[in-house]
Amino acid sequence: MAKPNEEDKIDDKPMPLLDHLIELRTRLLWSMGAFLVAFFVCYHFSGQIYSFLAEPLAHVLESRGENRRLIYTSLTEAFFTYLKVAFFGAAFLAFPVIAGQLYLFIAPGLYRSEKRALLPFLLATPILFVLGAALAYYFVFPVAWRFFISFETSTGGGGLPIELEAKVGEYLDLVMKLIFAFGVAFQLPVALSLMAKVGIISSKSLKKYRRYAYVGMFIIAAILAPPDVITQCGLAIPLIGLYEISILAAKMVEPKPAPDLD
After folding, report:
1. Please, which residues have CB within 8 angstroms of residue 183's CB and are 6 or more apart in sequence?
2. Among 169, 213, 241, 242, which residue has the least CB neighbours within 10 Å?
3. Which residues sit opposite 71 in a β-bridge?
4. 188, 191, 174, 190: which is closest to 231 by C-alpha?
5. Are 161 and 153 in contact (CB under 8 A)?
6. Contact 181, 225 (CB under 8 A)
7. From the CB of residue 6, how many other CB atoms can be counted at a distance below 10 Å?
8. Which portions of the chain are predicted below pLDDT 70?
């Protein structure tokens, strides 16, 4: 490995193990404090947050000219639903602080060039997560909810109608699962570009195994998304597009071969 020059050095001094543990405790306390503050704030506004998450379903029902409700069948279900909403919102709000504390903990052990290389990936992670969550909320949810509600019938078995009576807890679990799945899936360019940056993979290998990657995208979508074609395609197709973007990003950041001096 080439020796780093004077311009590219580690801005750190040797620390005993105890000092490293104290530094780790400090970063963990800051992260926990940020999460707890965000949790209490989100719990205070948990009703509004839940209304926001339920809005896609409400719009679909309103477009059908129907006035519906969400129900709960357990005394504690609504309370724990609001706790889940607060936890979910706190994870969103506190993530930048937690990621920043993680970076501050590992940054002293990195060369200046490594810091400059890592910072764009650190900034891209929350942006891509929000983009994935927005795709699920504004595109996938309306289409998927409309598809599921289409199975209602005015006369079901024995002449009884089949109507949706959604439970608040089950609806929230489905929404959070999809938002989390889309947000994590959109980290694909970050993960592949970072691996290309350190030399684990290359843009050529990504191109070579493109067809297998496409199949893998649909397998991932089948695992993360509900078992319906619309939602799975809504996740798999953007993943394929992100894979193509990852090839371009990997080509830009991968180490260039040393010039042949012969």
Report:
1. 128, 129, 130, 132, 133, 136
2. 241
3. 167
4. 174
5. yes
6. yes
7. 5
8. 1-15, 17, 66, 110, 113-114, 155-159, 226-227, 257-262
From 224, 223, 222, 221, select the one nearest 236 (Cα to Cα).
221
- The confidence score (pLDDT) of residue 36 equals 95
Distances, alpha carbon 121 to alpha carbons 106, 127, 171, 191, in Å? 14, 10, 33, 9
pTM metric for this prediction: 0.77
Instruction: List phi, psi (to 5°) of 88.
Output: -65, -45
Tell me what pLDDT residue 41 has. Answer: 95
Written as one string, the DSSP assignment of the chain is -PPP-TTS-B------HHHHHHHHHHHHHHHHHHHHHHHHHHHHTHHHHHHHHHHHHHHHHHHTT-----B--STTHHHHHHHHHHHHHHHHHHHHHHHHHHHHHHGGGSBHHHHHHHHHHHHHHHHHHHHHHHHIIIIIHHHHHHHHHTT-BSS-GGG--B----BHHHHHHHHHHHHHHHHHHTTHHHHHHHHHHTTSS-HHHHHHTHHHHHHHHHHHHHHHS-SSHHHHHHHHHHHHHHHHHHHHHHHHHSPPPPP---
Q: What is the largest CA-CA distance in the chain?
A: 86
| Phi, psi of 71, deg, nearest 5 | -120, 165
Other Cβ atoms closer than 10 A to 84: 17
Structure tokens at 239: 């993943």
